[in-house]
Design a protein that fits this description.
Structural class: alpha+beta
Number of helices: 2
Strand order of the largest sheet: 2-3-4
Low-confidence stretches: none
Bound molecules: zinc ion
Number of strands: 5
Helix content: 10-25%
Mean pLDDT: 87
Radius of gyration: 18 Å
Order of helices and strands: EEEEEHH
């Protein structure tokens, strides 16, 4: 399993016309709530701008197994967040005129 890959094109429009605009120091994964002492591996944080579509993005992709295998946070742990997402989904569905019935 590869821990990390680096994309070389835009996530949205697939253009290769990218420019690095920010580079932070390597950092541990955010929201790592493990309860025990752990040697946190650090990963690059470089922000790129796509000069074709304007999307800013990270090109380094960390394996989901690394990101989420010890991830204990659940949306329902934040009061009101579930209702927020349900309301947001309804508003987006209405704005985009999505007719399909969904169970909320
Ligand atoms: Zn793009």
């Amino acid at each position: 399993m590869k821990k990390i890959i680096k994309k070389n094109n835009c996530r949205a429009c697939k253009s290769y016309n990218l420019k690095k605009i920010l580079k932070y120091n390597d950092s541990p994964i955010g929201d790592d709530y493990r309860m025990y002492a752990h040697n946190h591996e650090k990963y690059p944080i470089e922000v790129y701008l796509c000069k074709s579509c304007g999307l800013t993005q990270l090109l380094h992709v960390i394996s989901p197994k690394i990101l989420y295998s010890n991830y204990i946070y659940k949306t329902q742990d934040s009061p009101g967040l579930t209702e927020h997402f349900i309301d947001f989904a309804r508003k987006v569905s209405k704005k985009l005129n999505i007719k399909k019935k969904a169970k909320f």
